[in-house]
Specification:
Helix content: 40-55%
Low-confidence stretches: 152-158
Number of strands: 6
Length: 158
């Protein structure tokens, strides 16, 4: 494993343990070159998955993109990082167990929407405003009203 501080190629594993949800292995490492310590995470990858975008371009599936989007939607909402990690891990598992090598970006977006609906109504609306590409304030207002009528609940603590 390459050191993120000095780029030395060798490091020594000092501690390994599973993450709380059991979806990854957390390893504490120490660089043999500069002595710096850093953490890595190993996750199971069942197969290479390609995301098909709306313009038919293709790119490799990246868990980090989902995690970044969900984290941004939940910003300042009091949603615990552990809950975000569980949501992202659940989406990733769902994608990997579908048995397909390609998945539409729209399908991933819908999975995120479904998860955020359960997690926090404001984060759900924030994500939807970008995902559904609201062009006017009226679109945003209509969507928020629909969420409220369905009984979108705020479980983020605010």
């Amino acid at each position: 494993m390459r050191c993120p501080f000095c780029a030395h190629d060798n490091s020594q594993v000092k501690d390994s343990r599973p993450t709380e949800d059991g979806a990854a292995i957390r390893r504490r490492r120490q660089c043999e070159g500069c002595g710096a310590r850093f953490t890595t995470f190993e996750r199971i990858q069942l197969r290479e998955i390609t995301v098909v975008k709306s313009d038919d371009t293709r790119e490799p599936f990246a868990r980090a993109k989902i995690e970044q989007s969900v984290t941004l939607a939940c910003r300042k909402r009091g949603v615990a990082q552990e809950r975000i990690d569980q949501l992202v891990s659940g989406i990733q598992r769902q994608i990997e167990t579908m048995g397909e090598t390609e998945i539409a970006s729209r399908a991933i977006g819908q999975m995120v929407m479904d998860g955020l609906r359960q997690l926090d109504s404001v984060a759900y609306i924030r994500f939807a405003s970008v995902y559904r590409d609201f062009s006017e304030a009226k679109d945003f207002e209509e969507f928020a009203s629909a969420v409220q009528q369905v009984g979108g609940r705020d479980v983020g603590g605010n």
